[in-house]
Amino acid sequence: MKITTKINLLTTVWMLFIMVLINTVVFFLFMKTTVNMEEAALFQKAGDILKDIDTNQSSSYVEENLKDYLTDHSFIRIIQPKNKVIHEVTNDLKLSKKIKGKYTKTKQAQTRLISAENGEEQVLVVRIPINNGNQSNGSLEIGERLMGLEARKELLRAILVFCTLLAALLSIIGGRWLANMIMRPISNMIKTMEEIEMSGVPKKINIQNETKDELQTMASTFNRMIDRLQENLEKQSQFVSDASHELKTPLTVIKSYANILRRQGLENKEMADEAIQAIHSEATRIQKMTETFLDLTNLEKEDVLDINEVNLVSLCESILKQLKDVYRREIILHYEESPIIIKADELKIKQVIIILLDNAMKYSNEKIEVFLEKDEKHAIIHVKDYGIGIPAEEIEHIFERFYRVDKARSRKTGGSGLGLHIAKSIMKLHKGEIKIKSKEGSGTKVELFLPISNRNIED
Ligand SMILES: Nc1ncnc2c1ncn2[C@@H]1O[C@H](COP(=O)(O)OP(=O)(O)OP(=O)(O)O)[C@@H](O)[C@H]1O
Ligand SMILES: [Mg+2]
Q: Which residues form the HAMP domain (predicted)?
């Protein structure tokens, strides 16, 4: 069943239930109060009769006077113990026949249903004792057909049924309107999703009114999700095209040297050596590049960190020792405080530091300095070199994927332009920051800011 039909049906049934309940209560309360009022009026009349008429007088006197109190369709009786009727006046014989006189010592009232010409009719009977001092002198009984009540009852019932049906009708119309209003954005969303499914192209929902309700939140969330999806798709296709472009150059080199080898064989030994050398170095480059690609793909996933306590001082000392041994470069570590402990993924932080030192070594020939500092919130790592520096207008681009300042030079140094991009992604995962200050010709300083208490990256 469609949600609109469900909402419509439920609201209507609920409305009907409430209306029937309320109307029943109204109906019975009306009947009760009307009968109560009639009852009070009859008791009042009975009291008046006993005040005005001396029931010990002769039969003709009593009955003559009682007649004055008769209304349409009523009877008045004086009854003695054992239900012995001693006086009775009536203008409705049928009525008085149907209701037998009853003696009572206490005040009482009752309603009786009797059959009449047009269906049933209510009769109200009240009885009060006649007392002379302490002695009971019988009881007075008055019975009256509640003619008006039946008519009013019918009218009231008709009105209530009419109101109930009207409410049900309004509820159907209102329910349909409400259901349509609620369902419109959802239908829009379903339509958009179906279009996405058919075409495979992410598409946003058109939000017509700013209703600020849950449905709009749902549509906005959906749109944000589509935005992210689109962004990711663009990133992905950009990456594929950038990566293919990057792989194309070394592959072209390999292919052309392989062609030379095929044409000339190994006759020209010098040429063959050069070709093999070039093929080997380009193949190594491709291998390194593919490893970096894998690294990058892993970093796109946000749950890749293995967080532990890391002492930056000992970490830097061990990295520097390894690099100094391999590259025979002067790298100096400065720090005033030890240990400097942060919560981070040690391998990833090590990777960032190596990326920075690798750049410093590639783009400078003099000493390289590493400074470790700490402020209230951050551990700060500076890597400083006195090399060629980066032109000011290039600095904003150097974190982009595959971006290299001097393509020809980078080719020689073997860079693919991914190092700083990876470093930035790792810093982002650690909720840290990376900043670069550089002056062309005099050197570069890269600063890493890592939060000391990194509780949020553990979540
Ligand atoms: N310390 C530095 N001095 C001068 N130029 C730098 C320095 N660090 C980075 N650059 C410039 O920024 C560019 C991007 O650096 P990045 O580390 O991302 O790539 P890469 O070093 O070329 O290659 P990869 O690190 O992927 O091997 C470099 O090509 C280089 O031009
Ligand atoms: Mg680099």
A: 180-234
Closest among 213, 222, 211, 212 to 189, alpha carbons compared: 222
Domain assignment present for 164: no
Contact 264, 272 (CB under 8 A): yes
What is the model's pLDDT at position 455?
53
Backbone angles phi, psi at 70, to 5 degrees: -75, 140
CA 404 / ligand 1 centre spacing (Å): 6
Cα separation, 331 vs 361, in Å, equals: 9
| Binding site membership of 410 for ligand 1 (Cβ less than 6 Å) | yes
Ligand 1 atom with the smallest distance to the CA of 292 is 26
In which domain, by residue range, is 127 found?
Answer: 3-155
Report the percentage of the chain scoring pLDDT > 90.
Answer: 46
In this structure, the answer to whether residues 311 and 442 fall within a common structural domain is yes
The answer on 246 and 314 residing in a single domain is: no
CA of 113 to the centre of ligand 2 (A): 104
Q: How many CA atoms lie within 13 A of 232 on its CB side?
A: 11
Give the 3-state secondary structure of residue 178: helix
* C-beta 429 within 6 A of ligand 1: no
Establish whether residue 385 lines the binding site of ligand 1, counting it when its CB lies within 6 angstroms of any ligand atom: yes
Dihedral, CA of residue 363, residue 368, residue 370 and residue 371, to nearest 10: -110
User: Do residues 330 and 447 share a domain?
Assistant: yes
In contact, 81 and 146? CB cutoff 8 Å: no
Q: Phi and psi at residue 69, in whole multiples of 5°? A: -95, 0
- Of 420, 426, 427, 448, which is best to mutate to test ligand 1, by the most ligand atoms within 8 angstroms of its C-beta? 420
Say how far apart CA 232 and CA 427 lie, in whole Å: 20
pLDDT at 9: 87
Tell me: the pLDDT tens digits for 153-198? 889 999 999 999 998 899 889 888 888 887 887 888 888 889 989 9
Q: Would you say residue 208 lies in a domain?
A: no
Question: What is the DSSP code string of 397-436?
Answer: TTTSTT--SSHHHHHHHT--S-HHHHHHHHHHHTT-EEEE
Task: Establish whether residue 363 lines the binding site of ligand 1, counting it when its CB lies within 6 angstroms of any ligand atom.
Answer: yes
* Mean pLDDT along residues 354-364: 94
Cβ 325 vs Cβ 435: under 8 Å: no
Q: Is the CB of 126 under 6 A from ligand 1?
A: no
Q: What is the CATH number of the domain that holds 10?
A: 3.30.450.20
Residues 147 and 291 in one domain: no
Q: How far apart are CA 138 and CA 80, in angstroms?
A: 4
Domain count, the chain: 3
Q: Which of 138, 155, 172 is the last residue of a domain?
A: 155
